[in-house]
């Protein structure tokens, strides 16, 4: 009996576990902020947190294009394994830190390495899955990100209160190292549906002359402000607005990233269904992004919700729809440029996200400190509509590279 379809999906599923570790590693910091603030021996402020986010995001942005090019150039297996090893070392180094200055170095190194995460998954999706399956594959990537972010609050609280905060970072670094041999074994057993050409990625930087790529970059920077908000600030929102303790906030905030997974799956299903009904892949992604942007207008109402449970529900719905949006937007470079340059194309979007987060993190922290979350939620809720209009006007519905449907890889 043929097992061709399970083979492709098993490989993608194993690869997605790298996304779990990627976001677990970076998101434990959001809970650790208020744990550090309760410890006199480790002085820490919200402004320090904004600075850490900015440094991480700057390193993330500056390395994104080069990391994408590197993965296209050396291949998925070698590129991903090197990146995971580096971010594991950075996580362990974070656990060994004793000051904010030491944290800055290790979080910068973490940002450089973790810029590979989404690009590598995009490369895997482009290699193992067919065009109509790609948005669902990207949604699986969001599952990994959501699981990692959802586990992070309890993971951080458990190690910080049962052992010490240092062990939070040691543990996630060791888990990342354990993933490497698992993936190498999987890739030997399950070949990809499409093997990229030798020298793939050699001309990737030439894509920077393409207006379509710049439309995707700018649109990503606009809409992913909402993603950045609910990736980094839910614990602080509940602690500041509803006066919860970090363990109490962790009982609520784990649900926010999990809802992102369901949003990503819905976003992938919407475009998959539209493609099955005859719409081109690019047009289907755009339509799904428009629907998501409409629902994201509700983000402006979250600060009006009176209880922690309702506020968490509001944050969860907003994150749900921004993940539905991002699943489709991050699939567009794969549709347009193909598997050969998928990592670089998605790396450009990572560059946009990192640059945006570098610019906005400290101002957002200062606004939250002075005025709360109301002005941030209002402004950010409008940006996905602007993002959709930019992509719709500058990228044609028939843009894209098709992969032959007949090519499938057995287990």
Describe the secondary-structure layout.
Elements: H1 4-36, H2 46-74, H3 76-95, H4 100-114, H5 116-128, H6 134-162, H7 165-189, H8 211-232, H9 234-242, H10 246-253, H11 255-276, H12 281-296, H13 308-329, H14 332-337, H15 342-371, H16 374-394
Helix pairs in contact: 1-5, 1-6, 1-7, 2-3, 2-4, 2-5, 2-15, 3-4, 3-5, 3-7, 5-6, 5-15, 6-7, 6-10, 6-11, 6-13, 8-13, 8-15, 8-16, 9-10, 11-12, 11-13, 12-13, 12-16
From the helix content, strand content and strand pairing, which structural class follows?
A: mainly alpha
Main beta sheet strand tally, sense and closure: none
Question: Could you name the CATH class?
Answer: Mainly Alpha
- The number of helical segments is 16
Total discrete domains: 1
**Which architecture per CATH?**
Up-down Bundle
| Beta-strand content estimate | under 5%
Enter the CATH topology name: Growth Hormone, Chain: A
Beta-strand segment tally: 0
Q: What is the chains' assembly state?
A: single chain
Overall body shape: globular
Description:
The protein has 411 residues and is mainly α. It has a single domain (8-195, 204-394), classed as Up-down Bundle (Growth Hormone, Chain: A), CATH 1.20.1250. It contains 16 helices and no strands. It has helices at residues 4-36, 46-74, 76-95, 100-114, 116-128, 134-162, 165-189, 211-232, 234-242, 246-253, 255-276, 281-296, 308-329, 332-337, 342-371, 374-394. Helix 1 (4-36) runs antiparallel to helix 7 and helix 3 (76-95) packs antiparallel against helix 5 (116-128). The longest helix has 33 residues, at 4-36. The radius of gyration is 20 Å and the shape is globular. The protein starts with a helix and ends in a 17-residue tail after the last helix.
């Amino acid at each position: 009996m043929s097992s061709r379809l399970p083979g492709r999906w098993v490989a993608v599923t194993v690869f997605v576990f790298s996304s779990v570790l990627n976001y677990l590693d970076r998101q434990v910091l959001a809970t650790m902020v208020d744990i550090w603030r309760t410890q006199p021996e480790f002085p820490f402020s919200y402004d320090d947190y904004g600075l850490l986010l900015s440094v991480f995001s700057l390193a993330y942005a500056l390395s994104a294009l080069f990391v994408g090019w590197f993965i296209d150039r050396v291949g998925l297996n070698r590129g991903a394994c090197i990146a995971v090893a580096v971010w594991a070392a950075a996580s362990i180094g974070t656990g060994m830190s004793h000051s904010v200055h030491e944290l800055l170095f290790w979080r910068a190194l973490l940002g450089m390495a973790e810029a590979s995460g989404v690009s590598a998954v995009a490369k895997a999706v482009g290699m193992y899955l067919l065009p109509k399956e790609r948005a669902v594959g990207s949604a699986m990537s969001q599952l990994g990100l959501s699981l990692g972010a959802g586990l992070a609050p309890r993971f951080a609280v458990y190690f910080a209160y049962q052992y010490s905060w240092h062990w939070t970072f040691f543990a996630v670094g060791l888990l990342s190292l354990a993933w490497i041999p698992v993936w190498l074994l999987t890739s030997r057993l399950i070949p990809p549906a499409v093997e990229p050409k030798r020298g793939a990625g050699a001309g990737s930087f030439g894509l920077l002359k393409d207006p379509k790529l710049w439309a995707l970059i700018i649109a990503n920077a606009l809409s992913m402000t909402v993603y950045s908000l609910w990736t980094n600030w839910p614990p602080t929102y509940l602690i500041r607005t509803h006066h919860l303790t970090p363990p109490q906030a962790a009982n609520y905030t784990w649900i926010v990233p999990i809802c992102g997974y369901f949003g990503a799956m819905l976003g992938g299903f919407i475009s998959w269904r539209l493609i099955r009904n005859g719409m081109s892949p690019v047009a289907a992604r755009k339509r799904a992004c428009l629907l998501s942007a409409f629902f994201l207008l509700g983000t402006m109402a979250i600060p009006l919700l009176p209880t922690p449970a309702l506020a968490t529900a509001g944050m969860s719905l907003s994150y749900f729809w921004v993940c539905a949006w991002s699943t489709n937007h991050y699939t567009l470079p794969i549709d347009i440029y193909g598997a050969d340059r998928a990592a670089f194309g998605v790396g450009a979007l990572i560059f946009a996200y990192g640059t945006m987060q570098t610019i906005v993190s400290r101002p957002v922290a200062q606004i939250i400190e002075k005025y709360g979350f109301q002005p941030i939620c209002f402004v950010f809720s409008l940006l996905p509509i602007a993002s959709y209009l930019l992509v719709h006007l500058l990228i044609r519905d028939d843009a894209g590279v098709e992969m032959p449907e007949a090519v499938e890889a057995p287990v």
